[in-house]
Amino acid sequence: MTATHFRTCPLCEATCGLAITMDDGQIAHIRGDDADVFSRGFICPKGTAVKHLQEDPDILHAPLVRGADGELHQATWHDAFRAVEHGLAPIIEQYGRNATALYVGNPSVHSLSATVMLPALVKSLATQNYYTAASVDQIPKHVSCGLMFGKPELIPVPDIDRTDYLLVLGANPWVSNGSLATAPDWPGRIRAIRARGGKVVVVDPRRTETARKADEHLFIRPGTDVFLVLAMAHALVDEGRVDLKGLLPHVAGLEDLSHLVAPFSPEAVAPATGIAAADIRRITRELANAPSGSVYDRVGVHQHRFGTVASWACDIVNILTGNLDRPGGRMFPLPAHGFPDPDAPSGRGWRTGRFSSRVKGHREAYGQLPVATLADEIITPGEGRVRALVTIAGNPVLSTPNGRRLSDALEQLDFMVAVDPYVNETTRHADVILPPPPILTRHHYDFAFYGLSVRNVANYSPPLTAADGPDEWEILSRLALVANGQPVDGDASVVPSLALHSVVQKATAPGGSLAGKSVDEIVAAVEHRGPVERILDVRLRAGPFGDRFGDNPGGLSLAVLEDNPHGVDLGPLTPRLPNALKTASGKVELTPAEIVEDLPNVERAVDDVPEDLVLIGRRQLRSNNSWMHNVPTMVKGSNRCTLLVSPADATRLDLVDGRSACVRSRVGEVEAVVEICDDMMPGVVSLPHGWGHDLPGVRMDVARAAGGVSANDVTDEGLVDPLSGNAVLNAVPVRVHAAAVAVP
Ligand code: SF4
Prior knowledge:
Layout: E1 2-8, E2 17-23, E3 26-32, H1 45-48, H2 50-55, E4 64-66, E5 72-74, H3 77-95, E6 100-104, H4 112-125, E7 130-132, H5 139-149, E8 157-158, E9 165-169, H6 173-176, H7 186-195, E10 199-203, H8 209-213, E11 216-218, H9 225-238, E12 251-252, H10 254-261, H11 266-273, H12 277-289, E13 294-297, H13 299-302, H14 307-320, E14 330-331, H15 374-379, E15 388-392, H16 396-399, H17 403-410, E16 415-419, E17 432-434, E18 455-458, H18 472-483, H19 494-508, H20 519-525, H21 531-542, H22 558-563, E19 568-572, E20 588-589, H23 593-605, E21 614-616, E22 642-645, H24 647-653, E23 660-664, E24 669-676, E25 684-686, H25 701-705, E26 732-733, E27 735-738
Parallel strand pairs: 6-7, 6-15, 9-10, 9-13, 10-11, 12-20, 15-16, 16-17, 21-25, 22-24
Antiparallel strand pairs: 1-2, 2-3, 4-5, 4-17, 8-14, 18-19, 21-26, 22-25, 23-24, 23-27
Helix pairs in contact: 3-18, 4-18, 5-14, 9-11, 9-12, 9-14, 11-12, 19-21
The chain binds iron/sulfur cluster.
């Protein structure tokens, strides 16, 4: 029997709709869902890889437990959970909660069960050693937005469907399909900006795929975006172009800004950035004069020593040009599950530095410590040394700086449990691996990405096939039970039940969107659903578009989403300020103390002598961080782990296209195939990250054979942005020389 099912692609932030045709229980083919309200048929090549990810012979379908022979062996779920209890509980009891660490990788944010249940696990472990992929990616944006708007999740996104001017810094959305700005089909949306007479400008040390399709591309020295955007703010003040439009009554600190940006004139920063002062002033004028515009900043801006200041400065430029909270500028999405009332004032504000890491004293940000320091916490003796590690959907050996050092450190753990479908470069160190159910047996709703969406939409996908093992909510709940000192085989449903009651209590409290209703009444109304769907249903129904359990007939609920498999369009973004602000002042804080204190360091760095050669990363259309290289169609053709080198650097370093080169940094050395490419700025080389799967014990045959090296064997764990803890993964100083023998 043939049937077509519609579901949201769970692989990246774009949330495209997939149409999956099943033939007698097997996936026949996957294409874009033409009727999807958001993606309208668009998918990228990764979308079709869902079939392989579902059927990959290397995916685990049963847990693995390390035996007395030191090898990982298949085990029953009962024995695997018992092994977790025997490994984890005594460490907590003997050494305390900070002897454990938790690392959560990027794919978990695409899992409905993980998103809903992770807070319970974090709370149960109650360790300060909590790390996520955010500290090698976007945490500077969370910190700058937390300080400016009062909530780290309150991130304005570029309103690309209505903008007249898009300035892209350190992002390559033509290939990545956007990040911290959820939108399927960035290529189509960029084309549309130009087709309606708008302008797209890309600033990047590489002429990226996005840059090639833009109106203009400017090379910039890696790590200097902070100078560029501060110079743009300077130019706006200097040339009298500051115009906040309707935002003026809702900002605090405007009078201090001109003094703070005074040292960063375009003329002062031009030598450091490599961009002429006249060009900096020109693009600033173009942005200011455009009917609407947006500065869009991503990893190339955030993975630096001044990532948080740079992120802040980008939004300062958006604000000074009147482009915050205005159609075509940067706007705040209103997610359907926003809860209890996203526009209710709170007035508490937000801060970082509530505690520090044991070894290096890195400050906490967003409840986390920098993953760059995880190895330090494992290998450094003393009270509070990390002895047990829990990883959820993460591969930090490939995705965090100085991965080799971390890999060695993992061998020193007393116990490690990983929730992961693969035996990869990180999980090969685990004592127990608990595989989540295969990708199409999971239900799906994008809690994280509808809060970052360029249009308000909602879409729910039920499981497409049945799973053999426990759902991810049960796996995480049992880990939470152990962390709480309870028997691992206790009633796992207690954990989501507590989470549900917490949500309902908030919604029904005075001032909540369900105030006046009883907790029992709400709980009973969703009781027929699974543990995770109950929580989703309450959040949808209590949310800004919700049916409020009968008070708003026709409003949203999980049942409505089930009746609309192509999603529900909730319309374009609308202005949300000042109500959405959660700062203590109730205003946008333009000059947070943490930022102001770091600005003198930025000023001193303007005159630093540039490094001779620096390494940057790059995004590839058929890669998704470290975990899609086991899909044969994803590692074919042009998707290769090569070292991009400019012709000028190739000549001066005696490098030959197709031959191998050694890339050496303070922490290590890798050997990669050279690809001479005039898209590279001289003085800059590029390696993609997530490659290098041929380590002992890895059970991913296609990935092992794909070759490549891990860029994070040369990135430096000692370099972080002190305000956010984000690793410095771009602008890494390196030496490159021709290798003696070509890499096949
Ligand atoms: S762009 Fe992202 S969401 Fe869309 S098909 Fe590709 S991987 Fe899936």
